[in-house]
Design a protein that fits this description.
disordered N terminus, single chain, 5 strands, mainly beta
Amino acid sequence: MERLQRSNSAAPAGTVVWVLSSGEDHEGGTVLGVFASKDVAKGPFAEAARSIPFDIDGAWQDEDGAVHARGGCDWVSLEPHPLITAPQLN
């Protein structure tokens, strides 16, 4: 498997949810689930990665803990996002 460069972003502060998504390059993506922890999402992430119809040709983890898998033009990602609990000021 190809190892890709890690991101330089830090983990979000405060309460974090883990968003599992999949899609195709240049086609957008779909949110498959939102999880309270990375551990809870490990099984669904593995299942989504196995559903990629091509051989996995890249898998990596970013510095913020996000994990990704890619096969052909298909991808699966599990990424941390801050839980927003109040209106945001722009």
